[in-house]
Amino acid sequence: MNLRYLYVLICLIVFLTACSAPKEVLYLQDIATIKQEKIEKGYEVKIHKDDLLAIIVNSKDEELALPFNMPMVSYQIGSNYNQPRIVGYLVDQNGDIDFPVLGKMHVQGLTRMQLTELIKKKLSEGDLIKDPIVTVQFLNFKVSVIGEVSRPGTFEISGDRITLLEALSRAGDLTIHGRRDRVAVIREENGERIIRYHDLRSSDIFNSPCYYLQQNDIVYVEPNKARTGQSRVNSNNSASVWLSTASVLASIASLLITIFK
């Protein structure tokens, strides 16, 4: 084979590989440069079992609101105290909380605003506080990101809204070995564990019920073939692996000698 043809063939292979590589790593490839899409519906996180809720009641008369507020406490970490935090209401396995004076309240499936209005209504109708101001917040909203990302871990969410893309951003984005077409969201709801896979290269992720993450969701990024192959080689040091590699190298060397004769 002429060396010039061999050189052209090698350049062509490198060029085709370089051109195809971005298609494997780019996100949202089917979206135009400038595109406006209407968000069909807003997102509000709902209260689940095991959620920890901070509920604060205020009134013009502060003494009337005192019985409905949990105390502020400081948690000791080693020899230091962190900032005071409100003791929250834990949603039990029946989806209830035990609220002062009002007693048991079923809160599972409600949004923060729905629970806020419910408490305000009960306080007003019970003639306990005339014009109550109620604030409800999540104290243990967290999601976990594992797999082929730069910084896997569990992340606490200060608000009550985080998207799949935002969670991956917090984890430092996918590594070059992460599969953009197999990003799983593991979710537990209604007594079932659901796993949904997403292709980050497609805008279809915006329509996924897991695009907006919920409390305790787990995001898992699968490794690609190169990473899994590397793992298998590293975990298998048997002589057969090295003999196979040596055989392949010998075959390549023989082929090159034949070409250059």
Automatic annotation (TrEMBL):
<dbReference type="GO" id="GO:0015288">
    <property type="term" value="F:porin activity"/>
</dbReference>
<dbReference type="GO" id="GO:0046930">
    <property type="term" value="C:pore complex"/>
</dbReference>
<dbReference type="InterPro" id="IPR003715">
    <property type="entry name" value="Poly_export_N"/>
</dbReference>
<feature type="domain" description="SLBB">
    <location>
        <begin position="142"/>
        <end position="221"/>
    </location>
</feature>
<keyword id="KW-0762">Sugar transport</keyword>
<dbReference type="GO" id="GO:0015159">
    <property type="term" value="F:polysaccharide transmembrane transporter activity"/>
</dbReference>
<feature type="domain" description="Polysaccharide export protein N-terminal">
    <location>
        <begin position="42"/>
        <end position="137"/>
    </location>
</feature>
<dbReference type="GO" id="GO:0009279">
    <property type="term" value="C:cell outer membrane"/>
</dbReference>
<keyword id="KW-0449">Lipoprotein</keyword>
<keyword id="KW-1133">Transmembrane helix</keyword>
<dbReference type="Pfam" id="PF22461">
    <property type="entry name" value="SLBB_2"/>
</dbReference>
<keyword id="KW-0812">Transmembrane</keyword>
<keyword id="KW-0625">Polysaccharide transport</keyword>
<keyword id="KW-0564">Palmitate</keyword>
<dbReference type="InterPro" id="IPR049712">
    <property type="entry name" value="Poly_export"/>
</dbReference>
<feature type="transmembrane region" description="Helical">
    <location>
        <begin position="241"/>
        <end position="260"/>
    </location>
</feature>
<keyword id="KW-0813">Transport</keyword>
<keyword id="KW-0406">Ion transport</keyword>
<keyword id="KW-1134">Transmembrane beta strand</keyword>
<keyword id="KW-0472">Membrane</keyword>
<comment type="similarity">
    <text>Belongs to the BexD/CtrA/VexA family.</text>
</comment>
<keyword id="KW-0626">Porin</keyword>
<dbReference type="GO" id="GO:0006811">
    <property type="term" value="P:monoatomic ion transport"/>
</dbReference>
<protein>
    <submittedName>
        <fullName>Polysaccharide export outer membrane protein</fullName>
    </submittedName>
</protein>
<keyword id="KW-0998">Cell outer membrane</keyword>
<dbReference type="InterPro" id="IPR054765">
    <property type="entry name" value="SLBB_dom"/>
</dbReference>
<keyword id="KW-0732">Signal</keyword>
<dbReference type="Pfam" id="PF02563">
    <property type="entry name" value="Poly_export"/>
</dbReference>
